[in-house]
Structure formats: structure tokens, C-alpha cells
Write a structure and sequence with these properties.
With 685 residues, the protein is an all-alpha fold. Helices cover 71% and strands 1% of the residues. It has a two-stranded antiparallel sheet. The longest helix is centred in the middle third of the chain and has 34 residues. The N and C termini lie far apart (54 Å).
Length: 685
């Protein structure tokens, strides 16, 4: 059994949403993509400063740069202008304007949009130094008045690119927020804010580091971009095949093995895709049919893959783009965010694993026969260097704190080793396919993150960002718990219509400061918002991950969504764990973290058993009325045991543990009595 066929199907599904122009357009994309990769490496390795030093290379680069009028040492905004120039125009080439548009050619109106975007970006590239030196974000000089109009043109082009790359829902939300500054002084209550002059609004949106080129785009240009290169390199060198085959060789033979393979493989695949749906399409085409083969119901198999793929985006060391944006918001190294995510993601996967094990035990589901599983020896022989590359990446991230350059070293080592060994060696055609994939991924994310930046810009331009925290605290009556529940609900609702990154950015500006002002840990608050934004992928009626898994499983999407919701139920509680006690995310004493982790693990064990009707060391708990009472007691007791005590909860850790022990003991007792009664034949004494 190998995973290559599955990756091929996933690739076809992903490509189908793009145009497939060839010839000159494809060559232009390859050129722009290669230049974007080189530009990012140039900036991350600080090559410009090296060349600007007159003593380096005999001063030739410095003299040449001065002669051509080129600033070799790009400042932040100049670098982002260059990136947008290389990437944004291609959104209009590869993403059609509507579903019925031609897929094999580029219509005239998209050629016009391509040219307008390139021209506008080139203008800002050429004026980059003056924009920074003369403060154009507040007032444009008289000899450059055209910049005011080009700022609005760039604004409109970014909105259309966001619509094409992200869909209508996120376009509507971003568009509404982006025009907020024009009407802010006429709105009532909480929405009331100042409305600057129209020229200042446009200038701030396009020529400052607060809107289009704000935190989301800065995260893309400085952190995300290197990890995207690494993720695409992993996919194109056979990393997906290796991780899937490794999972099958290690876990395929145990009870419920294919479902446990989905957990392991999807957690690792998240390091490559950063997307729940892509995760489902990549691993699901292999794991879902195999789960069904050993006896899992179709909807259940789809739910397992949905939950496993959702967790992949939350799993360090490489999480989704939102985690990198979070690092910039918190002004901490990305390493700190990744470390904070370790225990929550482990608890989530542990709960999922134990539910699958309980389901398999209750239904007598076996693993795969040995002849149907890949050889562990051969899998490791052909793919050991993937583990070595991950080890290098983690070492550089955690111990050297080199987060901006670590993925470049890891990518270079991976490609080098891939060419040394014959198993997945690239030809030139495969190399250019890799470059094209990087370019399309870059263009899509650049469009989305530039658009999301407009939300930030609207709140900054109006000055609303300064008093929003106080307003929200007043609205909640000073109750942090009400604010938390408001945040959970809002994160979930926004996650339905927006990308997770967009929902996170909005609440990181609007809600996080209020919660932090209320006394909560900053990392906990931002992680809380991030987690709740992800829940829309597994929660009906939207459940995008379930909708992607359902056709593969040949199950109804809504049924698949409800199975995913039950399987992933622990994720609804985990954000409250670490927001009530930051020790869950290493924001406290190590001994407290260890104690809470052990306690939560035991609690989740009982929750998983209750949800699936099978408790480890006890056995099956029935679905009858008495059995359901036992399962309810076990679930409530498990949550009480896992939940940390604090002032918000109103109980200490010790008190919660005592209540939990009592509920669990009664639940086990009722379950055992019910099982004994069911085992006694009717009419027997």
C-alpha cells in the first residue's frame, strides 16, 4: 500500500479551482515565483546589509546600486511592495472571476486587471523610499498627487483579489469593514468613531504598515513565506507518501488501525498544507476507504478524518498561517506560539485517539492484515531524511531561535537529500512544477492577507482600536466570563464566513485587548480565539472539513459533520482549560503544567469512554436509559477532572477533583450494575 495515488487525486481536486493557462502565462508565473523565493531569502538572510557595506565585494554592489538608483537594503514596506508586485497580479490570471468563467484561457478583462495591478504595484515599488522618508501615509507631496488615486486603485484591486482567492463571504466582510472609516462618525453607540479626510484614509490603507501592509502581510513576508516553501517542498519530494506509509506501518495492524493512522498522518500533514480541507483531500483518499474496509461506518470514517485534519493545523512545529500572525500580534518569537500549542494539541489528539480505540473495541473492529501494510524497514529506508529535516527545523526553531531562516535551511537540505537519493528525485519538469506550486500558494495567501489587513486598517484609521477594549468590558458589565463566551461565539460565527486567519485578526484587535485588560494571560487569550475559529470546520451546519470528507466516504455531509462534532468534542473545552490556567500552555510553573496535564489526560480518558460507550479496563457501557445515565456521569466527571480550578470556575483544583471522583465512581458503578443486569437472561433469578 502506498500513498502516491491519493496525493495525485488531492492535487487534481485542488487544481480544479484554478485556471490552467499555459505558454507565456505559465512562464511568467514561474519567473515571478522564482523571484519571490529569491527575494524572500535575500531579505531574511539580510543580504542587502551585506552588500551595502562598502568593504564587501570591493564595494562594487554598493556603487552599482547607487548608479542605478536602487536601494539594496530593502526596508519592511519596500520589501512588501515588491512581494505584492510579484504575486498579486497572478490572482487575476489563475483565479477566475466566477464559476462559469473560462478555465483554459485568460479573458481580456483579467488581462486588464493583471496590467493595472502590476502598474500600480510598480509605482509604489519605485516610490517606496520616498513613501517612508516623507511620510506619505499622512500627506502626499504635491509632485506625487497621483499616489492618492493609485492608493484607491490598489485598495479596489486587493478587494477583488480577496474575493477570488477567498470567496464571496470574506469579500463582503472585508469590504464592509474597509469602508467603515467613511461613515464611522455617523454610526451609533459602540460603532461611533472619527472619520478622517478621504485622502488620509486612502493613504493610510495603501502607504502605511497598518492596513494592506499591516500585521497579516508582515507575517506573510517575514515568517509564513519560508514555511510555505518548506511545506510545498515536502509535498513535492514525497513527504506525504512517507508520513502516510509510516503511519500505516506503525499503526495499521492495531484495532481500529486505519482510523489511528488518520490521526498520525493528518497531524504530520498539517505541517505541509496548513489547510484543513487540503489535509482531508490528501490523507482522506487513503484513510477513509481503508477505515470503511475494516468496518467503520462511512459517516464515522469521514468524521475521523475531518477531526484529524483539523488538528493538523493546530499541531506544532508548523501550524497554519494564523499562528505566525499571532506571533506578530503578541510580539513574541513564533517558537513561543508553537511551544504553547503543544499540550492543547496533544490533549485533542489523545481524546480523538481514545474515542477511536473505544469505538473499535466496542464494535470488535480489527486492524489491517500484515500483507496489506507497507514495510516499516522499507519506509524508513526511503524516507528517513524527512525525519532528519524535521529535526533540523525543530533544533533551529527551539534551540537557535532562528525562525525566519530555519525553513530555508530545512528546505535546502530536503531538496539536496532528495536529489542524492533515487526514490523521489526531481527532473527539471518536477522542479518547475514545485516553483509553480509555490507561486500559486504565495499569490493566494498574499491576496487573502492583504485583504484581511484592510479590517485592521479600518479600526486603526478611525482610532476605534484605542477605546474598543474599554467599550467591550463595559458592555459585558466587567465580567470576563461573559466576554469569553462572547469571544467563543463570535469566533465560531466568524469562522463560518471567513478564513480562520481573518476571524482571528478581527478578534485579536476587537476582543483580545478587552480580555487581557480584564486580567487574562495574553497568550491564552489569543490561543482561545484561534481555537474557537477552527471549530467551524467540524461543527454543523457549515463543517467545511466534513463537507470535504463526505464525498470520499460516500456519506451525507451533515451526518459526517455531527460525527466529527462528537469525535472532536474535547476541542470545545480545551480552550477554556488554558484560558482558565495558562500553565496548560507553559505560562506557569513546570510542576503545575505537569500536574494539570496528567489530570486532564485522565479526565479526557473518561470523556472519550463516555462518548463512545466503552471504558478502558471496564468494558462496554450500554445505550439504554441506565447506561446513558452512567455515561453522562462519566462525561461530566471527566470534564470536571480535566478542568482547572480558579476564581472564574468558583472551585479549586482539589475541590473539582473530589467532585469528579465522586461522579466517575458513581458512573462506573451504575455502568457495571447495568451491564450485569443485561447479562442475566430474562426470567432468571
Amino acid at each position: 500500500m502506498t500513498a502516491r495515488a491519493g496525493e495525485g487525486k488531492a492535487a487534481v481536486a485542488e487544481v480544479s479551482r484554478h485556471r490552467r493557462p499555459s505558454g507565456l502565462w505559465h512562464k511568467a508565473l514561474l519567473t515571478a515565483s522564482a523571484l519571490a523565493i529569491l527575494l524572500s531569502a535575500y531579505q531574511m538572510f539580510n543580504v542587502g546589509s551585506f552588500l551595502m557595506d562598502g568593504s564587501n565585494l570591493g564595494g562594487v554592489p554598493l556603487a552599482l546600486g547607487r548608479a542605478l538608483g536602487i536601494n539594496l537594503n530593502l526596508l519592511g514596506l519596500q520589501y512588501l511592495y515588491w512581494l505584492l508586485f510579484l504575486l498579486l497580479p497572478f490572482v487575476f490570471v489563475y483565479w477566475p472571476a466566477h464559476a462559469g468563467a473560462a478555465r483554459d484561457r485568460v479573458p481580456w478583462y483579467d488581462i486588464v486587471l493583471f496590467a493595472l495591478t502590476a502598474f500600480t504595484c510598480v509605482y509604489f515599488v519605485m516610490q517606496g523610499s520616498r513613501i517612508l522618508d516623507e511620510g506619505w501615509e499622512y500627506e502626499v507631496p504635491e509632485d506625487a498627487v497621483e499616489a492618492q488615486y493609485l492608493a484607491y486603485l490598489l485598495w479596489a484591486l486587493v478587494l477583488e483579489a480577496t474575493r477570488r482567492a477567498g470567496g464571496t463571504a470574506i469579500f463582503v466582510i472585508v469590504a464592509l469593514f474597509s469602508v467603515y472609516p467613511f461613515f464611522a462618525d455617523q454610526l451609533p453607540g459602540l460603532l461611533l468613531a472619527s472619520s478622517p479626510d478621504w485622502t488620509e484614509i486612502g493613504n493610510r490603507m495603501a502607504m502605511s504598515n497598518e492596513a494592506i501592509f499591516g500585521i497579516p502581510m508582515r507575517a506573510f513576508g517575514t515568517l509564513v513565506i519560508g514555511f510555505l516553501i518548506f511545506g510545498v517542498a515536502l509535498q513535492h519530494t514525497g513527504g506525504g507518501s512517507f508520513f502516510l506509509n509510516l503511519a500505516f506501518s506503525l499503526l495499521g495492524h492495531v484495532r481500529g488501525g486505519p482510523a489511528k493512522v488518520a490521526i498520525f498522518a493528518s497531524g504530520l500533514m498539517g505541517s505541509m498544507s496548513g489547510s484543513v480541507v487540503t489535509n482531508v483531500l490528501t490523507t482522506g483518499v487513503m484513510t477513509i476507504p481503508t477505515m470503511k474496509r475494516v468496518g467503520f461506518r462511512p459517516a464515522y470514517a469521514g468524521g475521523v478524518e475531518t477531526c484529524a485534519s483539523t488538528g493538523g493545523v493546530l499541531m506544532p512545529p508548523i501550524m497554519g498561517a494564523t499562528a505566525f500572525v499571532m506571533a506578530l500580534f503578541l510580539e513574541v518569537p513564533y517558537r513561543d506560539v508553537a511551544i504553547a500549542a503543544v499540550i492543547p494539541s496533544v490533549l485533542y489528539y489523545f481524546g480523538l485517539f481514545m474515542q477511536i480505540d473505544a469505538y473499535a473495541a466496542r464494535n470488535g473492529l480489527k486492524g489491517l492484515p500484515p500483507e496489506d501494510m507497507p514495510s516499516l524497514r522499507r519506509t524508513m529506508k526511503e524516507g528517513w531524511y524527512f525525519i532528519a529535516v524535521f529535526a533540523l527545523l525543530i533544533w533551529m526553531l527551539v534551540f537557535l531561535n532562528q525562525e525566519t531562516i530555519a525553513p530555508y535551511y530545512a528546505s535546502a537540505l530536503l531538496i539536496l537529500l532528495n536529489q542524492i537519493f533515487p526514490y523521489h528525485r526531481w527532473t527539471w519538469a518536477k522542479f518547475w512544477d514545485f516553483v509553480a506550486s509555490v507561486g500559486k500558494l504565495f499569490a493566494e495567501l498574499a491576496a487573502l492577507l492583504a485583504g484581511i489587513g484592510l479590517i485592521v486598517g479600518a479600526l486603526v484609521v478611525t482610532g476605534k482600536i484605542g477605546n474598543l477594549a474599554s467599550d467591550l468590558l463595559a458592555l459585558a458589565g466587567g465580567s470576563v466570563m461573559i466576554l469569553l463566551l462572547m469571544g467563543a461565539f463570535t469566533s465560531f460565527v466568524l469562522g463560518i464566513g471567513m478564513t480562520v486567519t481573518a476571524a482571528y485578526v478581527f478578534l485579536a484587535i476587537a476582543l483580545a485587548p478587552a480580555l487581557i485588560k480584564g486580567g487574562m494571560n495574553p497568550m491564552s487569550v489569543h490561543m482561545f480565539i484561534f481555537y474557537w475559529g477552527m471549530l467551524s470546520f467540524i461543527t454543523p451546519p457549515v463543517a467545511l472539513g466534513a463537507y470535504a470528507a463526505a464525498p470520499i466516504a460516500k456519506a451525507r455531509p451533515m451526518r459526517t459533520g455531527f460525527e466529527a462534532m462528537r469525535l472532536g468534542s474535547i476541542i470545545y473545552f480545551i480552550p477554556f482549560f488554558f484560558v482558565f490556567d495558562p500553565a496548560f500552555i507553559w505560562q506557569g510553573p513546570v510542576e503545575q503544567t505537569a500536574f494539570l496535564f496528567v489530570q486532564a489526560t485522565i479526565g479526557i480518558l473518561f470523556v472519550a469512554g463516555a462518548l463512545q460507550g466503552y471504558l478502558l479496563f471496564v468494558g462496554t457501557v450500554s445505550d439504554g436509559p441506565v447506561g446513558l445515565v452512567a455515561r453522562l456521569l462519566l462525561a461530566v466527571g471527566g470534564i470536571a477532572l480535566a478542568m482547572p480550578g480558579n476564581d472564574v470556575v468558583g472551585l479549586s483544583n482539589g475541590e473539582l477533583a473530589l467532585y469528579a471522583a465522586a461522579l466517575i465512581a458513581v458512573g462506573i458503578g451504575i455502568g457495571l450494575v447495568d451491564r450485569r443486569n443485561q447479562a442475566v437472561p430474562e426470567g432468571a433469578d
